[in-house]
Fold this protein.
Amino acid sequence: MKHLRLPVGATLILFLAALCPPALHAHDGVQASVHDTVAAVIKRMQRDLSLDELVGITVPKAEAFLTSQERETLGAGHIRFRVNVPVVVTILRDATLGDEPFWLRERGFTATGLKTKFYTREFDAWEKSFPAGRIGLGVHNLSGRGTHYLVLVKAQQGGDRVQVSELYPGNLRTAAFVAGVKPFVDQELQLSGIPAALENQLLIQTDTRREEDAQLVSLFSKTQYPAPDRADHVALTWSDDPRTTQTIQWRTSARIKSGVIRYQVKPANSMFDARSARTKRANTQALSTPTLVNDPLNQRHTVVLTRLKPETTYLYSVGDGSPEGWTAPAEFTTAPARVVPFSFIYMGDAQNGLDRWGVLLQNAFRARPDAAFYLMAGDLVNRGAERWDWDSFFEHSKGVFDRRQLVPVLGNHEYQGGEPALYHAHFTLPRNGPKGVPLQRAYSFEYSNAKFVILDSNLDAAKQTAWLERELASTKAVWKFVSYHHPAYSSSANRTNLGVRNLWTPIFDKYRVDLALQGHDHAYLRTYPMRAQQRVANASDGTIYIISVSGTKYYDQPKHDYTEVGLTKLSTYQVLDIQINGNRLVYRAHDVEGQVRDEFVIEK
Ligand SMILES: [Fe+2]
Ligand SMILES: [Fe+2]
């Protein structure tokens, strides 16, 4: 796939092309595409507005920028279809959107007064009558905010049966609007209840990945942390054997075109000695984010050290090779080649309030410097396609992820804009995932006597199932952990991911996975040990599913029959101590102050 690594001077058009899958944006020969129209508007905005005006543009100002032809395309070119009989089209719109989208009133839709709540959001209904023939509906909005609207179609005459044809974009589908229907083609989410007045109409299932297709507001941004010349935001990951390799990545301003690491086994006096250090050149690539107006281009430097000694602490420093360019020495420790006790930390969504998440992380590191690495179960940031958010993530994790490996998992927010391009730009990860799934999204590794299988629950669960089974079947590890973002057992109402529940949990059962480390629901949940979707008495007979949140956004949590511990409005980090004597796992969830808020022990 194409990442946002474009040459200097790459235009915004190229940037958008990289974000937009061509199949969904192809011209159909009838009219200008929304995609090309938006690109043209953005180009004009960049020409005519100052950088501060671009960053601060409002919906009315963005609307005023549109020509009448562009208004027509954005007002009717987003979703198109043909109907065989006269119909009434109802738009169910995210009610938080105020006057958006601009085309609803303009094109003669009127509010019916009906409001309904789906999962956590309120929607209001707007309708308009159309004769048989072609119908065009507009973009989600210009702000990119909120949840995509739903489309319902019913015949004007009671005896007519509506048929929808020539549906564009081609990945949209139709379904009867009844309880249990999936409103979106790209999500597993189902609607548990339907307003009686709308029941049994024909639903056009829309695509939430298209919510930002016409985003003109908040598209341009500034980073609080522009990349300096001296290396910073240094982060450790593993992309190969944790026992003998170490991957290190960092950034610099665009002016610094190369990167070097120097490293050595930590000497007895803990002092870095440059004369006896080895050096290795980094792979350096430009990262272009043209909408980040105050730092549109920086350089990413990545190095993979190989042939390291297991269970060994190294000191290292990175720079551009010039005498004054080196960072202060930091250290990393390779994984053991034998079975030893160890600890690691697991966290759920950081995502919001990264400054306060940073305090939690720094406190975790201070409290448990012995913890080997940090596993984060997705939604590391809120705006996965925006570099300022990643800059903030790395700024607030300074001093931790340059000395403890980060094991990241993909959440839905990393997929903002369709593909997790900036996630890939920032992390180099193992390429040992399932065939048919993009590399570095699902992967596995072993550490001491534990197996870790990282899955991508944004993608088709079925495509990862055979690989998951092979990974679990082939390991001799005593402890088995899986991690993915969307919970098999939700803490919220109506958020359970059925693909995960139905396809993956039977495999966790079969191979006795100990813990599933999940995110997404912005609450703390520990289930009873579960097997075959039933509660069982002992952890040794089932899998415990955990949800946690490390950032500052929280969702409510009703009690479920699988809930053993449910806590809300609480950010935590979890320390998992793997003890060899007696084969015990001691698990503790700590709040930001370090207080233990949940704990349990599994003994093998
Ligand atoms: Fe989240
Ligand atoms: Fe999420």
In short: The first helix runs from residue 12 to 19.
